[in-house]
Design goal:
The complex is a heterodimer of chains A (411) and B (87). Chain A contains 12 helices and 17 strands. Chain A has 411 residues and is of the alpha/beta class. In chain A, helix 9 crosses helix 10. Chain A is globular and about 60 Å long. Chain A has 2 domains: 240 residues, Peroxisomal Thiolase, Chain A, domain 1 (3-Layer(aba) Sandwich), CATH 3.40.47; 146 residues, 3-Layer(aba) Sandwich (Peroxisomal Thiolase, Chain A, domain 1), CATH 3.40.47.10. In chain A, strands 1, 2, 5, 6, 7, 9, 10, 11, 12, 14, 16 and 17 form a 12-stranded mixed β-sheet that branches. By secondary structure, chain B is mostly helical. Chain B is built from 3 helices and no strands. In chain B, helix 1 packs across helix 2. The chains are: A alpha/beta (411), B mainly alpha (87). At the A-B interface, helix 2 of A face helix 2 of B.
């Protein structure tokens, strides 16, 4: 019944600060673009100068009713726009809706909008919008998406802190592998941080400090010895995961096969990473894919620019024998999408695989580890047959996902 | 805002309806229209009434606005509530 060998990605959508849609996103990746600056969206600052990257504009899909858009959060609207791209590419209007599922990665993903509502109604709480009673839930994203797209197979959220996006891909793959549905969309939800989360993330030392606002373009520097913490970036991505052969063949070949994955826990409540946990995740993902470290051509790491996180991850890659693989850091371009990151980076990895090019890592001048094969400066040509993407989250969660080029043929 | 006549409240109601149900923009509303017949589900109806209450700065429990069967009756009820407050 469970056949991991035939689980493929047939559609993708992505919305980030450097652009909406795969084509625009791929161009931005290869050019090493960025949109880092002092955050402008209402509810992001409180006598502060937090730095990050915000989505300048996006188009919500026509299939969503105007009445739903009015009360849909930014997170939900971006999710719907991103789902539309993936849904259309995979031709899911033709699929049996009872065999299609949705797993949304992320928890507490609408914080800024909630704080805005609280602030607005502080003086007159009785006028709080009644619909807040349902829209405050993260599962409102599932509700809106199932209503708009007619999804009937399954829909729920999964939380794994900054590994949520990759956890969603893994749970979608599991839902397909188990036969529960034929197709499952994994969504890494936009983490809409308010000034409260930004303040605490800065205070705890995870986020780059506000004085980075003096040179926002240089703030986000994964794996560079000048790294000072992560820099927030609004983002969202969706991947359509399905069992090959479950639906009639389509014209386009799948992006890749999900060859192996792993979720490993450290048994640790705190934010600190663990090299052992990361190595375990890498080894198990490779093992289930039937691959060794030497087979991996490219690693898309978690790479947040947290000093301890970067050094721990570099060590885990080295100890796993991933010294031949090229490594870059997508967050140097997008910023850290938190709940979205793992899904955004899976999309970034598959776009690079399809284009046969690897994007540069911005601001990587003095790498923390010289034994790894960094891509920096400019994009490089590369044939990627097997790649590995990693995500880590507060609370001791480590995930690894191995993706392999498909044998030629239709979806 | 103090005592308001129902003719003054009616436009606030239709404005709120269009805000919550944008597809009704340009719809010719009549006092005899019911929110239900206009396509408002129970959540939409609560949202519409709350928008009007906020514009009137009228703090009454939403449950006290459940009786009216159409827009005219709702406007009448809210007018009474503003009068009660004005007294």
């Amino acid at each position: 019944m469970r056949d991991v060998a035939e689980i493929v990605v047939t559609g993708m959508g992505v919305t980030t600060a450097v652009g909406q849609g795969k084509e625009r996103f791929a161009r931005a990746l290869f050019a090493g673009e960025h949109r880092f600056g002092v955050l402008q969206r209402p509810g992001r600052q409180l006598d502060s100068r937090f730095v990050g990257a915000e989505i300048p504009a996006f188009t919500p899909p026509a299939r969503v009713a105007a009445r739903d858009l009015r009360t849909a959060s930014l997170t939900a609207q971006v999710a719907l726009a991103t789902l539309e791209e993936a849904w259309t590419e995979a031709g899911l209007d033709e699929a049996d809706p009872f065999r299609v599922g949705l797993v949304v990665g992320g928890s507490n993903v609408q914080q800024r909008e909630l704080v805005q509502a609280h602030d607005r109604h502080r003086a007159k709480p009785r006028f709080l919008r009644p619909g807040y009673g349902m829209s405050y839930l993260d599962t409102d994203l599932c509700a809106l998406a199932t209503a708009a797209f007619g999804i009937r197979g399954l829909a729920h959220t999964v939380g794994g802190a900054s590994a949520s996006g990759q956890l969603a891909v893994i749970e979608a793959a599991e839902a397909v592998a188990s036969g529960r549905v034929d197709v499952c969309i994994a969504l890494g939800a936009l983490a809409d941080l308010s000034y409260w989360e930004l303040l605490a993330l800065q205070s705890m030392g995870a986020m780059a400090p506000e004085h980075c606002a003096d040179a926002p373009e240089a703030a986000c520097r994964p794996f560079d010895t000048g790294h000072k913490g992560f820099v927030f970036g609004e983002a969202c991505a969706a991947l359509v995961v399905e069992r090959r052969g479950a639906r009639p063949p389509r014209e386009h070949a799948p992006y890749a096969r999900l060859a192996g994955w792993s979720v490993q826990l450290d048994g640790n409540r705190g934010p600190n990473p663990s090299p052992e946990g990361e190595v375990r995740a890498i080894r198990q993902a490779l093992g289930t894919a039937g691959l060794t470290a030497a087979d991996i051509d490219y690693v898309n790491p978690h790479g947040t620019a947290s000093p301890v996180g970067d050094r721990t991850e570099a060590r885990a890659l080295r100890e796993s024998g991933l010294t031949r693989a090229a490594v870059n850091a997508t967050k140097s371009i997008t910023g850290h999408g938190l709940s979205a990151a793992g899904a955004v980076e899976a999309v970034a990895a598959l776009l690079q695989m399809r284009h046969g090019r690897l994007h540069p890592t911005r601001n990587l001048h003095d790498p923390v580890d010289d034994s790894l094969h960094w891509v920096r400066g400019a994009a490089v040509e590369a044939r990627v047959r097997h790649c590995l993407s990693l995500s880590m989250g507060f609370g001791g969660i480590n995930t690894a996902l191995c993706m392999s080029a498909c044998e030629p043929g239709r979806a | 805002m103090v005592d308001m006549r129902s003719e003054e409240i009616l436009p606030l109601i239709t404005e709120a309806i269009v805000e919550v149900l944008p597809e009704l923009d340009g719809h010719p509303f009549a006092e005899s229209d019911s929110l239900e017949a206009l396509g408002a589900d129970s959540m939409d109806r609560a949202e519409i009434v709350m928008v009007v209450l906020e514009r009137l700065d009228l703090e009454v429990p939403l449950v006290e606005t459940h009786g009216p069967r159409n827009l005219g009756e709702l406007a009448g009820l809210l007018s009474e509530k503003t009068s009660a407050r004005a007294r």
